[in-house]
Amino acid sequence: MKGLKTIVGLLVISMMACMACTSKTSNTKPQQDTLATVEVAPQVLPVTVQMLNGYFLKNTYKLSSDTECILFTNQASFDLALGVAKTMNNKIDKPDFEKNIVAGIALKPAKQKTNIVITKAEKAGEMINVYAEVTIGEAITYTMQPFAVFCFPKEEGVNALNFIVDGKVIRSFPLNVPATN
Fold first, then answer.
1. What does the angle CA 94 – CA 117 – CA 67 come to, to the nearest 5 degrees?
2. Which has the higher per-residue pLDDT, 165 or 21?
3. How far is CA 29 from CA 14, 24, 177, in A?
4. How far apart are CA 143 and CA 70, in angstroms?
5. In what order do the strands lie in the sheet with 147-153?
6. pLDDT single digits (tens) 73-98
7. Which residues fall within 8 angstroms of residue 164, CB to CB, at 6 or more apart?
8. pLDDT, tens digit (0-9, with 9 covering 90-100), for 44-61
9. Residue 100 and residue 174: Cα distance in Å, rounded?
10. Which of 21, 32, 109, 158 has a beta carbon 3.0–4.6 Å from 177's, enabling a disulfide?
């Protein structure tokens, strides 16, 4: 019995020694380098949008889809597509193409009261996202051309303009707003 106790004792000591060796060798092995890729979401900043009052879409401008997003690059393209709707009481807002990006959203003519509202605009990284909502109201006895024209300041380094209407990306335009130094 004494011999059995001695053998069991030696086995226990051997196992403890092996466990100590194993833990020491695993601690002395160099750890494998691991690279973690962390994606950082671009900072989202609000963009101030100014609605341009006193314009209508000319009937010579043909829409290629039910929802047309338009980027006006200069005064000539603006004047080609839009007419001035001057009354005795309204003010015509003149866009400044040097300082602003000028754009519009038009819908197919409708016999229902239809309104386009720019709900927000934001800069996310190198993109400007413009969000709009369309509300359709009661029937009317005439045909109307739903249209909204607006501008916002040029932001340096911006390379795309995205139109999101009723939660869907409708159109993206490439932009090239150079960085100012």
1. 90
2. 165
3. 23, 9, 53
4. 21
5. 50-51, 147-153, 100-107, 67-72
6. 999 999 999 999 988 888 899 999 99
7. 129, 130, 131, 132, 170
8. 899 999 999 999 999 999
9. 15
10. 158
